[in-house]
Design goal:
Helices cover 79% and strands 0% of the residues. The chain has 285 residues and is mainly alpha-helical.
């Protein structure tokens, strides 16, 4: 696969990931967060095992890899924080803060000695983190403490995403993208199961709308997006692959504004602009 094909796969992944943030917000109206996240990955894992298993998506020897389980733990914690965080914050805020993961990826890669941190990326990191601070502060002033708690949970998700980008690269190079995608989804589904006990006592409604949200997230925003993401990692670096994040941010924010009529104050709007500029500078430099 050429680098151009890898970049195209990453762009497709960014669009698919971008649809997940507003759909999660819609689903949280009828399904508790931890149960919702677990259903998403259980259904995605079922697709992997029963539909894609014979196409190289399930390799039993891979589950002896400590790195796979470490990435699975990161993914599990990240999604637990994201679903609970989105229950408390707006869809557009979640998209913007998740996008800040792109600012962390080159820093982590530089600390590992994998890539250089050039001046444009450094400036992008500073602008993006300044923007993240403005979004969190601005929303806190507008909507109160619950919003800030949700924003910080989403920021924790961004940290796990950055770590997954960097460490998945090593595993994909050795094992291939289908097997790593399948392994990541199955380990995440397994590790999410205990979190469902935190939703005991919360109201739940599993009507047709709820199952639509679960199936959409499982098939398109999970199996599809993770497949194209890991496919891209076969030929491009972790930092280049972070172009997925500005695409995800734009798609998520546009859909959030259209669906939820999310609005921005001068402070949070300035922060949003700085995040998008910073993420673009990091990903495209």
């Amino acid at each position: 696969m050429t680098q151009r094909t890898g970049l195209a796969s990453t762009i497709v992944s960014g669009v698919l990931f971008g649809t997940s943030v507003p759909v999660i917000k819609l689903g949280l109206g009828v399904i508790p967060p931890f149960f919702f996240a677990t259903l998403r990955f259980l259904v995605a894992s079922a697709v992997v095992v029963f539909v894609l298993g014979r196409r190289g998506w399930v390799k039993r020897e891979l589950y002896r890899s400590k790195l796979l389980w470490a990435i699975g733990v990161l993914n599990t914690v990240g999604y637990a924080m994201q679903f609970e965080g989105q229950f408390l914050t707006t869809s557009s805020d979640a998209a913007l803060i998740i996008g800040s993961a792109a600012l962390m990826i080159p820093v982590i890669a530089r600390l590992r000695g994998k890539e250089k941190l050039v001046w444009r990326r450094s400036l992008g990191v500073l602008l993006g983190f300044a923007g993240t601070s403005l979004v969190v502060a601005g929303r806190g002033l507008e909507l109160g403490g619950g919003q800030v708690t949700g924003d910080f949970l989403i920021l924790g998700t961004a940290v796990t995403i950055a770590l997954i980008f960097v460490f998945s690269k090593d595993l994909v190079e050795v094992r291939g993208s289908p097997a790593v995608t399948g392994g990541l989804l199955i380990t995440t589904a397994t590790l999410l199961l205990p979190f469902t006990t935190l939703d005991l006592g919360r109201p739940i409604s599993l009507g047709p709308d709820a199952w639509f949200y679960v199936l959409f997230l499982a098939v398109f925003s999970t199996v599809g997006s993770y497949y194209f993401f890991t496919k891209g990692l076969e030929t491009i670096s972790a930092t280049v692959s972070s172009i997925i994040l500005p695409i995800e941010v734009v798609v998520s924010v546009v859909l959030s504004v259209m669906i939820f009529r999310d609005s921005f104050s001068l402070l949070s709007g300035t922060g949003a602009a700085l995040i998008i500029v910073g993420v673009a500078m990091v990903s495209l430099s």
